[in-house]
Amino acid sequence: MSRAEDLGIRAASLACLLAGLVLATGSNEYIVPASGRSLATPCAFVFWMLAIIFWVLGTQSENHT
Asked: Transmembrane ranges (predicted)?
Protein backbone atom coordinates (compact mmCIF):
# COMPACT_ATOMS: atom_id res chain seq x y z
CA MET A 1 0.00 0.00 0.00
CA SER A 2 1.13 3.52 -0.63
CA ARG A 3 1.57 6.10 2.10
CA ALA A 4 -1.58 7.94 0.97
CA GLU A 5 -3.66 4.76 1.25
CA ASP A 6 -2.29 4.11 4.74
CA LEU A 7 -3.21 7.61 5.84
CA GLY A 8 -6.67 7.29 4.31
CA ILE A 9 -7.36 4.03 6.11
CA ARG A 10 -6.11 5.45 9.41
CA ALA A 11 -8.30 8.53 8.89
CA ALA A 12 -11.32 6.27 8.34
CA SER A 13 -10.39 4.44 11.55
CA LEU A 14 -10.22 7.69 13.48
CA ALA A 15 -13.54 8.86 12.01
CA CYS A 16 -15.24 5.61 13.07
CA LEU A 17 -13.74 5.90 16.55
CA LEU A 18 -14.99 9.47 16.94
CA ALA A 19 -18.45 8.57 15.62
CA GLY A 20 -18.65 5.77 18.17
CA LEU A 21 -17.63 8.13 20.97
CA VAL A 22 -20.21 10.70 19.93
CA LEU A 23 -22.94 8.06 19.87
CA ALA A 24 -21.89 6.57 23.22
CA THR A 25 -21.58 9.87 25.08
CA GLY A 26 -24.27 11.91 23.32
CA SER A 27 -27.52 12.97 24.93
CA ASN A 28 -29.72 11.69 22.08
CA GLU A 29 -31.11 8.21 22.57
CA TYR A 30 -32.19 7.23 19.01
CA ILE A 31 -35.15 5.16 20.21
CA VAL A 32 -36.59 2.54 17.85
CA PRO A 33 -40.39 2.97 17.99
CA ALA A 34 -41.23 -0.72 17.54
CA SER A 35 -39.07 -1.99 20.41
CA GLY A 36 -38.59 1.06 22.61
CA ARG A 37 -34.84 0.39 22.81
CA SER A 38 -32.02 2.80 22.11
CA LEU A 39 -29.66 2.22 19.20
CA ALA A 40 -26.89 4.40 20.60
CA THR A 41 -24.90 1.61 22.30
CA PRO A 42 -25.14 -1.00 19.50
CA CYS A 43 -24.23 1.56 16.85
CA ALA A 44 -21.30 2.83 18.91
CA PHE A 45 -20.07 -0.77 19.22
CA VAL A 46 -20.31 -1.25 15.44
CA PHE A 47 -18.33 1.94 14.81
CA TRP A 48 -15.64 0.84 17.30
CA MET A 49 -15.34 -2.54 15.58
CA LEU A 50 -15.00 -0.80 12.21
CA ALA A 51 -12.30 1.44 13.70
CA ILE A 52 -10.36 -1.63 14.84
CA ILE A 53 -10.72 -3.30 11.43
CA PHE A 54 -9.58 -0.18 9.57
CA TRP A 55 -6.67 0.31 11.96
CA VAL A 56 -5.48 -3.26 11.41
CA LEU A 57 -5.77 -2.83 7.65
CA GLY A 58 -3.79 0.40 7.83
CA THR A 59 -0.99 -1.05 9.94
CA GLN A 60 -0.69 -4.41 8.17
CA SER A 61 2.73 -4.97 6.66
CA GLU A 62 2.98 -6.08 3.03
CA ASN A 63 5.72 -8.54 3.95
CA HIS A 64 3.32 -10.83 5.82
CA THR A 65 1.23 -12.18 2.96
From this structure: 7-27, 39-57
